[in-house]
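Table S2 (text version). Query chain:
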Amino acid sequence: MDKIVLASNNAHKVAELQAFMRDVYPGVTVLSLRDIGYTAEIVEDGDTFEDNALIKARTIAALGYTAIADDSGLMVDALDGAPGVYSARYAGEPCDNAANNEKLLSELRDVPDEKRTAKFVSVIAMVTPDGSEIIARGECRGTILREYRGNGGFGYDPLFFYEPYGRTFAELTPDEKNRISHRAAAIADLKVRLSQTERK
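Corresponding structure-token output:
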């Protein structure tokens, strides 16, 4: 395996996943969909993060590449797990981070601080051209604040408070976030699953 294609057009996700995968496979060339000239939209109509990650990875693996796809989102306990798989489009089309955050704040307006718990979830699917599939999952728990803090990150990061660091995801440096994020946990799980597969 000398190339891995990240089945995403989300520049932020691509950057994070490239950093992770280069750490896992130092000698591997990590490509984005743009790098391979793939411009079609992949319809993510699954009911779970696992479904959507597999849809994307299978689509690219069918072109002859080893593909990795991430599907991730925010699950808020007081909202019965919403926005979940609809995180990117919570406020409707087109995707708008600011509108999504404002809707989240509105939905949680009357929820007391102690019940504003949530978790970021990341599911990573790795599919090879021969049809082999590995699914990994990672989570990171936090609390949804009532106001924005920080200028980094993307999506719901300015509202997601990570207690062990005493800051929101948007206040963390990229290196700090990459150590503790849901995507970091999913990558760690993927590494374990890959090593188990190689031993078989």
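Notes on Table S2: The longest strand covers residues 133-144. Helices lie at 11-24, 49-61, 97-107, 174-180, 182-199.
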